[in-house]
Automatic annotation (TrEMBL):
A Gene Ontology BP annotation from the UniProt entry: proteolysis
Protein name (record): Peptidase S1 domain-containing protein
Signal peptide annotation: 1-18
Organism: Anopheles coluzzii
Pfam families: Trypsin (PF00089)
Record field: transmembrane: none
């Protein structure tokens, strides 16, 4: 190849690379030729190409079924003649350790237990089945502050002689990390007595109980008060159920909840360890050691991280539930974040939705905080554009949830080969929403492989909220009652509430803006309906009028 050809090829490569760089940058300093063609908000489809969304993720005394409580352990004492008495329960929290009550560290004859049974729901079998694992106990580590006379620090760790093998019937549980106790129903499991003066159950049972007030609990306790001189402490809590409770033989077993990841994985979380209680009869209560108070001691003793993230990553054996959790990732081609200074880089403080080359919709409450007005919008790739104007709805009153809407104008022009404006759905002309509303949210760093993963929370119960004070306003309420892991997801205040056709790849239809009234991803979801604000938006975006605004 001669020198001329080489130089020509080199120039072509430079031109091609330069063209690609220009095409893929997020913002331009000059308007594109078609910028002035827009005459109405409805023509947004003409300006929009590409795919806006990802794919749906699937998502969450009674006899327990096999594999229902994979973390359940039975703690056994070998007796003369080969008989095994399973007199306590336990919780598998890693392949090597079982969490139990300290008073299960020895029986009434001061004999330590010999083995742990995993993966079974029936104790009195005449033969072993393939799904069960009997593992000898290597060591028992009782909490250093435990005193057998008192009912405090009643936790212990059993170290197994060999590692448990995870399967469909054997899997660890994760530890509840929060200081508070869940207010909803919790499951306790065990093979304890079926009632006062009754025999232990040969079948694994579970009961549903709820957290009860400390004062009410202490009134019911019949135990010698000298054994609980401090009453119920902060590292303990009480629970009771309607004609249900834990009984003798359930000691050391789990009390917990099941929550879900965004991908529908069911995660068992142990909130308490069965410690003691009143006699098993109507009105009885149980006292539990609060697991969250012992996480540090457990980690130090086992030399294993007990974080939710590490627990989930290790436990491929968790159930994948077929309940539709109503979440899915999406390619955020119209969602931008707001930044308040040039040193900011967190795109998840408040969201905004691109609706035109230069305009984005957000919540007025996002742009009127003590931080002042935001200075930049930031794209998913980290590029940012300066905000030149902020327009706040003239109907908005600070501190009020209705009319919580604002427009942002940026100083540059968005590249629509990279981003895709959402189209505004006007219920006045188009009727009710065509597709179910999906609320913008952010995946958590705790369990998400992508720390800033964008998500949509689907409104599972359409317009099914009883909020009388919101009637007649621009606020709409939806239910999304799925019990997610704490901190698994957080709402994207100011971000989009959209509907879209998952089959044709058309632009998202913007229904509203995520309201700060939406406290969490798994509770009531509130949006500000944009329909009532269409004339105001049109006046600024299309007609280029300059109502009251703030200059940055």
């Amino acid at each position: 190849m001669d020198l001329f050809v080489k130089i020509s090829v080199f120039r072509i490569l430079i031109l091609v690379r330069a063209f690609v760089v220009v095409q893929m940058q997020s913002f331009f300093n000059s308007p594109p030729p078609e910028y002035y063609r827009r005459t109405a908000l409805k023509d947004c489809i003409k300006n929009s190409e590409g795919t806006y969304y990802g794919t749906d993720s699937a998502y969450g005394g009674i006899d327990a079924y096999e594999g229902e409580f994979q973390h359940m352990a039975a703690i056994g004492w070998r007796r003369a003649g080969g008989k095994i008495d399973y007199d306590c329960g336990g919780i598998l929290i890693s392949k090597q350790f079982v969490l139990t009550a300290a008073h299960c560290g020895q029986d009434n004859e001061n004999k330590r237990p010999d083995l742990v049974l995993l993966g079974d729901t029936v104790l009195e079998r005449f033969y072993d089945i393939e799904s069960t694992q009997k593992i000898a106990i290597h060591d028992i580590k009782v909490h250093p502050y435990y005193n057998p006379y008192y009912k405090y620090f009643d936790v212990a760790l059993i170290e197994l002689e060999k590692s448990a093998i995870y399967s469909t019937t054997v899997c660890r549980a994760c530890l509840w990390q929060e200081n508070y106790v869940p207010t909803g129903p919790m499951d306790a499991a065990g093979w304890g007595a079926l009632g006062f003066f009754e025999n232990p159950s040969p079948l694994l049972q579970h009961v549903v109980v709820r957290h009860i007030d400390k004062t009410a609990c202490e009134r019911k306790l019949t135990i010698n008060k000298n054994r609980i001189p401090q009453g119920i402490r902060e590292d303990q809590f009480c629970a009771a159920g309607r004609n249900m409770d834990t009984c003798e033989g359930d000691s050391g077993g789990p009390l917990g909840v099941k929550q879900y990841t965004l991908s529908g994985i069911e995660v068992p979380l142990v909130v308490g360890v069965v410690s003691f209680g009143t006699a098993c009869q109507p009105g009885s209560v149980g006292v539990y050691s609060k697991v969250s108070e012992y996480v540090k001691w457990i980690e130090q003793t086992t030399k294993t991280s007990m974080s939710i993230k590490d627990c989930i990553e290790e436990s491929f054996c968790f159930h994948e539930n077929d309940i539709n959790v109503g979440y899915h990732s999406f390619n955020a081609k119209s969602r931008f974040g707001l930044l308040w200074n040039e040193y900011d880089s967190d795109p998840n403080q408040c969201g905004a939705t691109l609706i035109d080359y230069q305009y984005l919709l957000t919540a007025a409450s996002c742009v009127t905080t003590g931080l002042g007005h935001p200075k930049y919008v930031i794209a998913k790739n980290g590029e940012r554009a300066a905000i030149s104007n902020v327009y706040i709805s003239p109907k908005y009153s600070a501190g009020r949830p209705e009319n919580d809407i604002a427009l942002l104008k940026i100083a540059q022009y968005t590249n629509l080969q990279v981003y895709q404006p959402a189209c505004l759905w006007d219920r006045q002309s188009s009727g009710m929403w065509e597709f179910e509303p999906r609320f913008s949210a952010n995946g958590l760093k705790q369990t998400s492989r992508n720390p800033f993963e964008s998500l949509f929370v689907r409104a599972t119960n359409f317009l099914d909220c009883e909020v009388p004070w919101a009637l007649g306003t621009d606020l709409y309420c939806f239910h999304n009652q799925v019990d997610l892991l704490t901190g698994e997801c957080e709402m994207d205040y100011g971000g989009p509430v959209v509907g879209f056709n998952s089959s044709d790849g058309s632009a998202a239809q913007l229904y509203g803006i995520v309201s700060p009234l939406s406290r969490s991803c798994d509770s009531k979801l509130f949006m500000v309906d944009i329909s009532r604000h269409i004339p105001w938006i049109k006046a600024i975006v299309v007609e280029k009028l300059e109502p009251f605004r703030f200059w940055i």
